[in-house]
Amino acid sequence: MDRIIFMVLRNIYRAPFWFYRVVKMGREDAACTEQERYGYIRRMVEEINRTGRVTIRVQGRENLPEQDGFILFPNHQGLFDALALIEASPHPFGVVIKKEAAGIILVKQVVRALRGIAIDREDMKDSVKMIRQVAEEVKAGRNYVIFAEGTRSRRGNELLPFKGGTFKSAVKARCPIVPVALIDSYRPFDERGIARREVQVHFLPPLYPDQYIDMKTNQIADLVHDQIQEKINQNIP
């Protein structure tokens, strides 16, 4: 919370203009392209992270598929995850988040500008609709981020089990699955104070349809989970 307040204060004179632009880009009739929307939000996020004294260290960008139409599956450590991923990824993406988080001021506007999806996790029909929508959009060449734990881990760099159902969109779309290891992403907002922090983002080699098509979704979930946890264990003391 200390750092969030610090970020707000350091960018207080920029915030109204950012908010206006993001709201404008989030309209259905906005003239800008997805790359233009994402590029603006990415520059905004880079400035927020810089003024918030958080450095994003990225490894494995070469593992991102050259052609869009893939889904990133990162571990989930907290609210800062999205800021780390946006700065780390040159490819635009939509994000699937829970409706509670989508109601937060600015988060709501950014999700709309990214053409993301907010779902009610307790509503099965909503989940089914999301799976179908993400699959269709990914087939058409969009990218998405889905947090396979379903909720944030409160164990630092230790992952919760991944939910097999979160991989149904990827299987339906037959798209590349890109595991993403976030390390220390909980620290900027969960720890008190505003000391400099470093967050690591590791893009792991993707799983392609021919590698997972004969697997059940819970098997895919376990495989991606273990790859991410192994990468985290390799990069923390």
Automatic annotation (TrEMBL):
PANTHER family: 1-ACYL-SN-GLYCEROL-3-PHOSPHATE ACYLTRANSFERASE. SMART domains: PlsC (SM00563). Keywords: Acyltransferase, Transferase. Coiled coil: none annotated. It comes from the Bacteria. Signal peptide: none annotated. SUPFAM superfamilies: Glycerol-3-phosphate (1)-acyltransferase. GO terms for biological process: phosphatidic acid biosynthetic process. InterPro entries: Plipid/glycerol_acylTrfase. Pfam families: Acyltransferase (PF01553). This is 1-acyl-sn-glycerol-3-phosphate acyltransferase. It comes from Candidatus Lachnoclostridium stercoripullorum. One of its GO terms (molecular function) is 1-acylglycerol-3-phosphate O-acyltransferase activity.
